[in-house]
Amino acid sequence: MIRMEKRLRLFLLSFILSLLVSPPPKAAAAQLDPNYYANICPNLENLVRGAVVKMMSQTPVAAPATLRLFFHDCFVMGCDASIMIISSDGSDEWRNPADFSLKAEGFETVLAAKAAVDGDLQCTNKVSCADILALATRDVVSLSGGPTWPVELGRYDGKVSLGSDVVLPSPDFNLDQLNGMFGSFGLTQTDMIALSGGHTIGASSCMFFYNRLYPGDPTVSPGFLLQLQQSCPNPLLDPNAFAFLDAATPLQFDNAYFRNLQQGMGLLNSDQVLFNDPRSQGTVNLFASNQSAFFSAFVDAMTRLGRLGTKTAVDGEIRRDCRFVN
Ligand code: HEM
Ligand SMILES: *[C@@H]1O[C@H](CO)[C@@H](O)[C@H](O)[C@H]1NC(C)=O
User: Fold this and answer.
1) How far is 12 from 28, CA to CA, in rounded Å?
2) pTM score > 0.90 for this model?
3) How far apart are CA 247 and CA 111, in angstroms?
4) Ligand 2, residues 283, 287, 289, 292: which to mutate, most atoms within 8 A of Cβ?
5) What domains can be seen in the chain, in order of their start residue?
6) Given a cut of 90, is residue 3 above it in pLDDT?
7) Under DSSP, is residue 16 helix (H, G, I), strand (E, B) or coil?
8) What is the band of 150 on the pLDDT scale with cuts at 50, 70, 90?
9) What CA–CA distance (Å, rounded) separates 228 from 212?
10) pLDDT > 90: percent of the chain
11) What is the reported pLDDT for 230?
């Protein structure tokens, strides 16, 4: 009897000790690997790229819309394609005002790529929407003239999408606010500047910068100001009015965005501030003078962005339809 008790106590003690030594696993981030699907869906990269090429040939909006979609996905609940979920009660991320301007072409690009992937019998329902979005994003960048890189894969799709979780940078942010928000995700100022270079493609609705036009913000170059005032005569009356984020080469993924900033031709306040603030000007000048330096910093930062909040089978799933939780 006493021996039994002793054994029990020993057992309990070792059990408690084992708990102390190895705490129960929290929902760990996924272990990502560029070769994750090598045996599961060997033709994955070609299937995604084919769909992306087709979408880009149909509309110039596909590339910028997809790149922005990836950013907005990763910053809210991690890179888990939660941005694509449609909830019947309307409480989903994409209906939050900060996401409402995301263009349909980005969602359509991912859905087309998902259909292409699922059309391969070896791949059907085995590749996450989050990974397809990450691959499609790399492809729109490289097919627009930007860098290419191996995309880390193995994310699961999230099951939660709440508009109330959406916190994204504002175009009126100053450098400290930009660094604060990107820093909260473990991204450096250099990452933040390189990622802002995503504004080398695409457009912005006038409502996001008209406060810089009337009266004219002195950091906007006079010629550019005139041009923008013509594009956005009365933004409140014309919600469809827009301007390109990189007026020099709006469809080309290049470093013209940074050369624009040097000339007072950044469209958003959050763009121009990167040159105007002496703490970030050096990096802008480096990226403006050396496109390879920009490309390599962009690839590094995109890879880090792609690791945010990734899900596993514990807290995620492989969504059959990217728009709905299984
Ligand atoms: C640094 C903070 C950022 C702010 C304040 C910001 C803000 C904005 C705003 C206001 C627009 C215009 C949206 C519209 O009119 O529909 C826009 C567009 C865009 N953003 Fe950002 N953004 C930021 C960072 C990023 C990052 C990190 C990326 C990707 C790496 C990105 C990619 C894009 C793209 C590609 C567009 C054009 C979308 C299109 O033409 O459909 N942005 N952004
Ligand atoms: C430009 O940047 C690349 C990549 O960081 C670097 O290898 C190269 O030496 C730089 N070129 C010049 C002219 O500074």
Assistant:
1) 27
2) yes
3) 30
4) 292
5) 43-165 (1.10.520.10), 175-305 (1.10.420.10)
6) no
7) helix
8) very high
9) 10
10) 87
11) 94
**What are 29-51's pLDDT values in tens digits?**
879 999 999 999 999 999 999 99
Calpha distance 162→184 (Å, rounded): 20
Residue 172, token pair as written in the block = 């009126």
Full DSSP string of 111-176: HHHHHHHHTSTTTTTTS-HHHHHHHHHHHHHHHTT----PPPB-PBBPS---GGG-----TT--HH
Q: Tell me if 181 sits within 8 A of 169, measured CB to CB.
A: yes
User: Beta-carbon neighbour count of residue 317 at 10 Å?
Assistant: 16
Q: How many CA atoms lie within 13 A of 288 on its CB side?
A: 18
Phi, psi of 157 (to 5 degrees): -85, 140
Q: For ligand 2, is residue 296 a contact (CB within 6 Å)?
A: yes
**Residue of the nearest CA to atom 25 in ligand 1?**
196
- Please determine, for residue 2, whether its predicted confidence score (pLDDT) is greater than 90: no
Contact by Cβ (8 Å): 47, 120: yes
pLDDT of 182 strictly over 50: yes
Residues ≥6 apart with Cβ < 8 Å to 201? 63, 64, 67, 144, 245, 246, 250, 251, 252, 253
Q: Which residues contact 111 (CB under 8 A, 6 or more apart)?
A: 322, 323
Which pLDDT belongs to residue 28?
73
Q: Which residues contact 199 (CB under 8 A, 6 or more apart)?
A: 245, 246, 257, 267, 268, 271
| Residue whose token pair is 């994003």 | 137
Could you tell me which of 152, 110, 112, 149 has the C-alpha nearest to residue 132?
110
Question: CB of 106 closer than 6 A to ligand 1?
Answer: no
